[in-house]
Amino acid sequence: MPTLPGSGVRPRALALLLAFGPGAALAQGAPDTIALDEISVAGAGGPPKAAFGVAAPPGSGPSVIERPVGEIVTAIGRRDVIANRPATTIGQVLVNSPGVTVRQGNGPRDVVVSIRGNNARSTGVVKNMVVLEDGFPLTQPDGASRFDLTDPRAYSRIDVFRGPQSPLFGNYASGGALAFRTRTGREIDGYEVGVDAGSFGYLNHYFTVGGVSGPYEVSLFASDFRLNGFQDHASANTQTVNLLASYTPGPDNRFTLKVINNTLDVDLAARSSLAQYRINPYQRGCATAANAAAGCTTFNLFRNGAFGATVPVTASEGAFGRNDRRTIVAGRWEHDIDADTTWRAQVGFDERNFDQPFYTSSSRGSYPSYNVLTDLTRRGEVFGLPAIGYVALSYNAIDNHIALYNRAPYGGPRLGALTSNQEAVQSNLGGRARGEIALSDRWTGVIGVSAENTWLKGRTLTYAYSANGVTPARADIDRSFLNVAPELALVYRPDEALAVRGRVATGYATPAASTLFVTPAGVPGNNTDLRTQTNLGVDLGVDWSPLPDLRLSLTGFYEFFRNEFVTQSPGAGLLSYTFNAPASEHRGIEAGAEWAFSPGWRATAAYGLNDQFYTRYVEQLSAGSLTARFDRAGRLIPGVPAHQLLARIGYDQPSGPFKGVGAFVEAVYQDGFFLDNANLLKAPGYTILNANIHYDTDLIASYAKRLSLYVEVRNVLNTTYIASAQPLANSISAVTGLQNGASVLATTTGSIFAGAPRSFVGGMKLAF
User: Fold this and answer.
1) What angle do CA 580, 582, 584 make, to 5 degrees?
2) Which fold has domain 73-767?
3) Where in the chain are the domains?
4) Three-state SS for 654?
5) Vertex 66: Cα angle to 601 and 11 (nearest 5)
6) Where does the UniProt annotation place the signal sequence (predicted)?
7) Are strands 626-631 and 40-41 parallel, antiparallel or unpaired?
8) Are 647 and 96 in contact (CB under 8 A)?
9) Which of 2, 131, 372, 595 is the most buried if burial means most Cβ atoms within 10 Å?
């Protein structure tokens, strides 16, 4: 699967194609800054020997894939987002990119990331984007990604690709892609120890070691994350180990090893209704249902674990939680066939193992998967024009095994009766090709395409219980999907300070087995008619640096979706289900700015506008013996805020006795959004203010090389806000057949997590 880069020893890398020589010289941001939508364009001098495919080798120089021509890419570095602040989740980093929305997931470090609103309706697994780390996929072959395993401390940079990316990244990249880059051995050059601590029992110990010795380069990161939580029953305990190692036996061969292991043990608070949130946003005083405070959320569990009478339990009584493990082991061989041609082969194994007893059901399972990729990059000329070409072939597969149980009340995370057993295999075989051609010293053109076939085969057995016994049912899937995604882009750069870009691209995402086995009633069963989600996007943008220390970026986009996946909850304790909206449109504006307007001063802004609505969708609702149909054309798609803004201003003393002392304040604003297809109920927006002070200095004549200290106050004004809200299904009255109003939706539980109140976090890091 193509990917983003590495940095260091000598630029070149993988992929296959039919073009050569570069008219594309890359505008590369400093590693500790936020690079705003920088793109590569033809340069007058000879081409840098840069990598193009999956990822540049660790420690290599700039690669084309890091700033691919015509793409809308924001590079988020360490400064003000990782290096001098306690970044507890990856969400606090990614909001620095225009077009990115972040939601709280099911666990304190679990976040749901959305690019251009394409995943904003999810409350758990990340979909509609491809996630990679050092060129290796973190997205499994069923399109699912999770960020429990991503400790921000490990990374030197994160690249955010916005818009349809299937021509470059294949299946599931309909909304974009994220490319994480861990710090290389030469970047670390020694070892570092650090600790962060703060409100609500937050504690994170971490350790980093890295260096280069002859042909070997290694970096190792490990962390131990603990949290009690600001809600009842919301503690966390997770450990992460992340290894990146490379061996370069000669000038023409490079070998890379990647290993990630994450273990997770968290207690989950209950998601509330909007009405409960207004009464008791942090779900406090909810230890027992019998003595619960006002506004506490309870869930009804079968007393016998199978059918009949139910009893209400709180999150604590039900012992809601997650106990997961994720292990990734992958390797890559890169070989320079000649000075202008590089071939790479990559293979990886990825297993997600989970035990998740929360709400009215408990899921247990294992998702082992593997992926193989080979690609070739060639630099040269096409019709006498400098060009670079890339071709890739990939195959990946996942074997799903999930058992779903009823929950039984009391006595910890007790299991009730087995309600379903799912087995499915999904595989994807595809090829991708891309060419970048320097049409002149000012114009660069791009053409790309991917084609991929997906196979899904499996079954689910469901069991319904009553006094008369067990009633089994079976649903089978045996489907295949063939998708093709082309891309065209054109970039005009009249001078080094200005670039104008246009792009037309497509994306696709096939259904995953898990979505095919949950019915609109929110129970296991047959939902096997889902189709592939496709989209066509048009982007027009400009990147401008009118002053040496000022960078501006502006992008407008319009995307047309067919069979868009929309996921929503049918009610408390029920499983979320997915359906196809026949036609919808997404349009918006993304803007970014970075300005060092005076010595030591820096201002940063990232803004996104999203306008997403159905153009063709008739929703059918049933209750009792009544059925009604509602035309949702023109309605806004739930879960997507119209406006998102991050603004930061800071100062770092550049010289004198106080050199290294700095501070910044930032505001994060998110608009409100509708929770339902009828647009009857809206979650309110919010603005969060954060303040930071830090000190970073070299240590002279000391065993340690560098000291970093920082303290941060988050949510300075102690604003109560919604960090996550699951979209809700509309309903009708079983008596009248009329659509129920906002008051019914407002009392539907299982939707909302509140965000953290005011908190204080500080830390220190020593580099040796």
Assistant:
1) 105
2) Maltoporin; Chain A (2.40.170)
3) 73-767
4) coil
5) 110
6) 1-27
7) unpaired
8) no
9) 2
